[in-house]
Amino acid sequence: MQIVASWYTRQISQEREAASPDQDRIDELVAGLRQCITDQRSLPSADPASVARISADYAALYRDLGSR
User: What's the rounded mean pLDDT across residues 41-66?
Assistant: First the structure.
């Protein structure tokens, strides 16, 4: 999950530094980062099945983000 948060952070930084930043893309990236942080914070109190599901979701998301 941390690797996904790092990806979002890098993308936000790159978009903000672009010659013509796309605010809609920045907003989407920030929303994704916020969701990632929320999910990370929920892990300590989550049951094992939820942790496994969240982990699988983020592994799939990372594979998807890597293909962009």
Answer: 94
Please name which of 67, 61, 49, 68 lies closest in space to residue 4, comparing C-alpha atoms: 61
User: Is-contact 32 8, C-beta < 8 A?
Assistant: yes
The angle formed by the CA atoms of residues 30, 31 and 32, to the nearest 5 degrees, is 90
> What is the DSSP code string of 2-64?
HHHHHHHHHHHHHHHHSSS--HHHHHHHHHHHHHHHHHHHHGGGS-HHHHHHHHHHHHHHHHH
What tokens appear for 41 in the block? 């914070």
* Three-state DSSP state, 65: helix
Full-model pTM: 0.86
Task: Give me the pLDDT at residue 19, please.
Answer: 97
**Helix 48-66 vs helix 2-17: crossing angle, to nearest 10:** 40
